[in-house]
Amino acid sequence: MPELGADPARKSDPVTRAPTAIEKYGNAIFTAANYLFAWLTVLLVLYIVYTIASTAVPAIGKYGWGFVSGTKWDPNTREFGVLPEIWGTLYSSLLALVIGTLFGVAVAVFLSEHFLATIVFSVLKVFGVQFHSFWGNLPDRLESLLKNLVELLAAIPSVVYGLWGIYFIIPFIRPMCQWLNVKLGWIPLFSTTLSGPGMLPAGIVLSVMIMPTIAAISLNSLLAVPPKLRQAAYGLGATRWETILAVTLPTASKGIFGAVILAFGRALGETMALAMLVGNSNVISWSLFSPGNTLAALLANNFAEAGPGEIGVLMFAALILLSITLLVNVIGAFVLERASGQKGMQ
Amino acid sequence: MDQTRTTPGQTGQVAQQPIQIDMRLLAKSLRRPRSAFSFFMNGVVGLMTIIALVPLFSVIFMLLLRGGARLSLSVFTELPPSAFELGGGFGNAIAGTLVIVGIAALISVPFGIISGVFLAEVAPGSRLAHAVRMCAKLLTGFPSILAGVFAYGAVVLLTGGFSAVAGGIALSILMLPTVTLTAEEAIRMVPSKIREAAIGMGATRVQTVWMVLLPTAFPGVLTGIMLAVARAAGETAPLLFTALFSNYWLGSGGLDLMQPTASLAVLIYNFSAMPFENQVELAWAAALVLVLMVLTVNLIGQSLSRTRVD
């Protein structure tokens, strides 16, 4: 019996036939399509920048630097300035970053040191079931559950956080804020009362939204710290926290720093929670309780009803937001790349 | 710190005798500042982790309490109420969200998968691939409102009106980088033996990709798509001035995708600031429905990738 495919000259052999013309052309077309879509991805980014910039050009020519330093936004008198918005964007993002970094790094340390598993294990030990086929898996399971819960925080849509901020955070922190204003009103941070929306509720909600990012990337870089370093520190007699503060965190600091910058970029561009919570008034104030505005919230509130003249101005504001976030994101990606590159070398 | 100093001191004084260490100094005791500090910091970090999770449970609790109370069959079938009207629902917003996300997926999924194939298979090390990866990463950190601004400039101004298509295009920009990068990652995870076996048998690149690589990498690619869909469904900012909002069913004047379309996210935003109790209740109910949708898609996507890793 002749083996199937033994004779390459037979074109009709189903196993070793040469590719048909259709398959060859299909291959060429597919490869071309691959290149096309790869180019399209790059062109898309350029086109986005071009669209926003070209629509903003008339406004840039008309208002110039006065737009960045102006403090009024009045479509009736055609006075436009975004200094309060730039101030509010940076203020709310930095506020969120401070809170979010504290909690994000704490969660990352808690997870990377396996605190929960240790506690659960010692509880199980009391009952003598730490190696039981079901209970023995409990520490690991609870730990991955905790990790998933933190990730779940990032999955909730920002508009839901905004709703939660209006009906939970603001009533919750208001008495505390009034008390701080009455007792410590001479400090610029507490110099106004919280009359509903304001920077502090916006910052708190924003920090909840960026905390999972910081926690996840910090956790990765903490887990990437070579175990030898940790063991060496323990071997020298360091306590757990001396090890964490003097060895683990400094070694992972580049990754954590990258995480913080990426989270900062996200906070700068976040829109809905801020549009709902920040108060939308053009005020520049040091006070945590004063209402304010951000670039993204300005766009969200004014774009839908904008007249033809206002579109260009709003596009100008969008261009400023785009340049700030692009800058921050590029720096963050660069820092993270260098951090992971160094780890690869060790 | 002091016991680390005294121990060498003791050994120096009694150099000839066997070293004697006071064992009590080595025992862990909370009276010592170092141990106490460590213990204290354990507590602080544990407490901060618990506080960090409070918002999650608080959001879920509020959603179930306030949204669950209003949830009934009629909210899925009725139209949004006007100012002083009672009752009503958000059936058109659910349909609108599905349509807009569907349009976004139709654009971004083929686009993303083909770019992913390019990155993983066609020219992984080329300069173009580096540029594409950089652009995809830039788009990941791209503020969602700017996707809306772009769609406004590129679609709404051109077609002359707010539409579901404009909203879908805005969302597809946000979905594209996730789909591209996860598709690349998933195709890379396919063992090189499988790829080499296909090439060794004389398969063309199209055959390798379509009959071997993509089916093997399918769960991973699907995870990326699910995560992107979950994110897009919850996005509000890009829809505010592209799809806008509508109080009517999408198909009321024939199925026209070029007219303003309602979505759950925009409904929540619009109703949250209204002074009417009925609208606020509906906003909570819509938020509950939206979160359930997003979390379901998210969890399915994550479980797919988990079975793949195991």
Write the H/E string of chain A, N to C.
HHEEHHHHHHHHHH
Major β-sheet annotation of chain B:
none
Within CATH, the superfamily of one domain in chain B carries the name: MetI-like
Termini separation of chain B comes to 47 Å
Cα distance, first to last residue of chain A?
A: 61 Å
Question: Approximately how much helix is present in the residues of chain B?
Answer: over 70%
* Record field, number of beta strands of chain A: 2
The residue ranges of chain A in which pLDDT falls below 50 over 5 or more consecutive positions are none
CATH architecture of one domain in chain B: Orthogonal Bundle
Provide the CATH topology of one domain in chain B. MetI-like fold
Description:
In chain A, β1 (73-74) and β2 (79-80) form a beta hairpin. Chain A is built from 12 helices and 2 strands. Chain A has helices spanning 21-63, 66-69, 83-112, 115-127, 138-155, 158-184, 199-223, 227-235, 240-269, 272-277, 295-302, 308-345, and strands spanning 73-74, 79-80. Chain A is an all-alpha fold and 346 residues long. The longest helix of chain A is centred in the N-terminal third of the chain and has 43 residues, at 21-63. Helix content of chain A is 73%, strand content 1%. The model of chain A has no long low-confidence stretch (mean pLDDT 87). In chain A, strands 1-2 form a two-stranded antiparallel ribbon. The radius of gyration of chain A is 28 Å and the shape is flat. By secondary structure, chain B is mainly alpha-helical. Chain B has a domain at 92-305: Orthogonal Bundle (MetI-like fold). Helices cover 74% and strands 0% of the residues of chain B. Chain B is flat and about 95 Å long.
